Amino acid sequence: MRPLASRIQGARFWLRDARAPAALVATPPGPMDAEGLLRLDLRVEDGRIAAIAPLGTAPPDAPSLEGGQLWPGFVDAHTHLDKGQIWQRAPNPTGDFAGAVRSVMEDRDAHWAEAEMEARADFALRAAFAHGTTAIRTHLDSYLPLARMSWPLFTRLRAAWAGRITLQLCSIAPLERFLGAEGEALADIVAQSGGVLGMVTRLAGDFAAPLPADFQPMLDHFFALAEARGLDLDLHVDESGETGARALREIAATALRRRFRGRIQVGHCCALTLQPEAHQRETIALMAEAGMRVVVLPMCNMYLQDRAPGRTPRWRGVTLVQEMRAAGIPVSLASDNTRDGFYAYGDLDMLEVYREATRILHLDHPFADWPRAVTAEPAAAMGLEAGQLRVGAPADVVLFHARHMTELLSRPQSDRVVLRGGRVSDATPPDWRELDAFVTA
Fold it and tell me: Which of 38, 78, 240, 296 is the Cys-Cys partner for 32 at CB 3.0 to 4.6 Å?
């Protein structure tokens, strides 16, 4: 692919003999094959896609992908840039959820400051950019007084990265934090920053146990905060193996009862897989009726859930994506945490997310339109016109030497070529050593 990169020059050119997932092409110029791919030529003019044409349209001397794949830029709709890259100074020795909460909270109290947080977040954004990501939503731990520092910081980062990565900001704090004056202040910070209102539910116990009496009033209050400010919602829901963690159904029912008009995305929803089938069906039906979207974090959930010392996990920890999709609920895949107590690995590479999700969630045989889960679907969840190959769109695309899906998903594709605005990007993932001054134990 390096010779191809060197041949892509100027403001106007063709890319010849590419394969693209048909589900990502707004107007397919031909039939797709058994893997859901179609052959095409693509024209770039002045930084935008000028034509998507049948194979053979481009002149024979145009740069050729030789049947390699061409994707739109990736969209990552659930990350935690404020936590990322702290593993070396704040490891999670048990690798479980309780250990993650403990290690991150201790690190937050001891170390989180403006300069070091900016260095870690900028590092993560540069990695994502090098891998071909065009938009990211990050959840920010939103506690007072921390939020008065972190939200202005990430608002500045959003402006600094404009034109390279579209950065959206979302709050995360336990639901009860949104009660009283602190809740009003947090919601105001989110609204004034142009963000998304988010929280996390922490229900536990057995399925037969009643929900806590204060849960529904807190949930209604949270919805009211969003409604008063015209905010969308993005919620961490039922991220555990507790069968009593069943906030998902109540969130959907509350959205319907209140006729909530904003977008609602929910993430994790792990516990649903362990609950009775009738409850699963009812919950999914309510979610579909409420127009909710789900974002799935397969690598992080498999890392944390059902972990016990010396015991092989019996449960994957991921939610019912196949059933949700069948019910018409849009599904996205995302990175979640990177190199912190909640997930010790990761590099904000959405191809890695898609590759691992394909194996974990069986998103193959057929591959169908699952490539939308790392492109078009998260873009729609974020309210963006991105993640699709269409005439007039910015020429933000990723080129792979791999031709077929099993070729694409069998290697890291470290030789990919990223085009931003029709120009070959020379960005590379940053060196871990850059962070030594901040995160070395």
Answer: 38
